[in-house]
Amino acid sequence: MTIKHTHRLLALLSLMLAWQGVAAQDLIAEQAPIDRRLKAVDSVTIQRLIDREDNDLSEELYEDAWNTTMAHPYRGIEMPDSFKIDLRDFCMPTPSRNITSHFGYRPAFRRQHRGIDIKVYTGDTIRAAFDGKVRVSTFQGSGYGHFVVIRHPNGLETLYGHLSKRLVEPNAEVKAGDVIGLGGNTGRSYGSHLHFETRLLSEAIDPKLLFDFPNQDVTGDFYVYRRGANRASQAQAVAAQSGSKGKGRDVARNAGHYYKVKKGDTIYSIAKKLGINQKQLIGNNSLGRKPKIRPGQILRY
Questions:
Q1: Which tens digits make up the pLDDT trace of 46-70?
Q2: 138 and 22 housed in the same domain
Q3: 180 assigned to some structural domain
Q4: Smaller CB count within 10 Å for the chain: N or C?
Q5: For residue 26, is pLDDT > 80?
Q6: What global pTM score does this model have?
Q7: Where does residue 209 rank: exposed (0-12), middle (13-18), buried (19+ CB within 10 A)?
Q8: Domain count across the chain
Q9: What percent of the chain has pLDDT over 90?
Q10: Residue 16 — very low, low, confident or very high, per pLDDT cuts 50/70/90?
Q11: Is the model's pLDDT at 18 over the cut of 60?
């Protein structure tokens, strides 16, 4: 091979390498936006999976207490000062929007009602509100009738009472939306309905703070339980339903009012919309000196 031919071969090889380099760069450039998008999607997915794993708080919260016969066996376990409850990935236990009896004191029976009653008919489908594990599935003739209790990884336990039929057994794993029973009129009941309770350890929480039955939705992505706040609302409800006059009635009238923060809301705009003082709104929700709010957050006023 002559020197001339050698130079030509080297030039051809250089040209080929240069073309491959440009093509590779073009390919990388074309993939870059896709890779960035995929990376963003993967980050969100991975974080949600991590959240799911970390969100199984029930074992630590309940101190491994597992009773398959009693609805509320948690005497002696101390309540946390506050607890953040994840309401995402939910299912409404029934498509019924008709609440026939609310949470709180009932003068006709002279006792507290620890849940809400939702109108359903015998045989209507009742579903699990969240993923979880069935703790109780039994019959109580003088109370809940046929009822089911499910413990959820978000820390809640939900109770479904007065069923005509139970379709799950204790220790069964269920997913949100799984059918767990049929509506009915068993136990201490005066007409077919679903008695629905939401509890954190021994504390009953008004289900309306978590579930918006008229709109078939949850009240937000999260609900923050604060020890004592729920009992204060119950005391105010007693004053209202007992026919208290004057100041007690005024306090009770404002007791069960809640506002769901929307995108773009500020403390100022919410207070103006509700017709209340900003300091009052901040104080009622323990927001601190530099209050921060987020969409989906529930504020009490």
A1: 555 445 545 577 777 888 789 999 9
A2: no
A3: yes
A4: N
A5: no
A6: 0.62
A7: buried
A8: 3
A9: 43
A10: low
A11: no
Q: Is the domain of 103 the same as that of 208?
A: yes
Residue 268 Cα distances to 161, 219, 274, 288, angstroms: 42, 21, 10, 15
Residues 209 and 295 grouped into a single domain: no
If asked whether residues 145 and 205 sit together in one domain, one would say yes
Q: What is the C-alpha separation between 70 and 162, in angstroms, rounded?
A: 16
- Tens of pLDDT, residues 95-125: 999 999 888 876 766 777 889 999 999 999 9
User: Does 72 fall in a domain?
Assistant: no
The confidence score (pLDDT) of residue 120 equals: 96
- Domain of 128, CATH number, reads 2.70.70.10
Per-residue confidence (pLDDT) for residue 160, from 0 to 100? 98
d(CA 240, CA 246): 11
Q: Is the pLDDT of residue 12 over 70?
A: no
SS (H, E, C) the chain: CCHHHHHHHHHHHHHHHHHHHHHHHHHHHHHHHHHHHHHHHHHHHHHHHHHHHHCCCHHHHHCCCCCCCCCCCCCCCCCCCEEEEECCCCCCCCCCCCEEECCEEECCCCEEECCEEECCCCCCEEECCCCEEEEEEEEECCCCEEEEEEECCCCCEEEEEEECEECCCCCCEECCCCEEEECECCCCCCCCEEEEEEEECCEEECHHHCEECCCCEECCCEEEEECCHHHHHHHHHHHHHCCCCCHHHHHHHCCCCEEECCCCCCHHHHHHHHCCCHHHHHHHCCCCCCCCCCCCCEEEC
| Token code pair at residue 253 | 């009238």
CA distance 84 to 71: 23
Range of the domain at 26: 1-54
Q: What is the pLDDT of residue 21?
A: 56
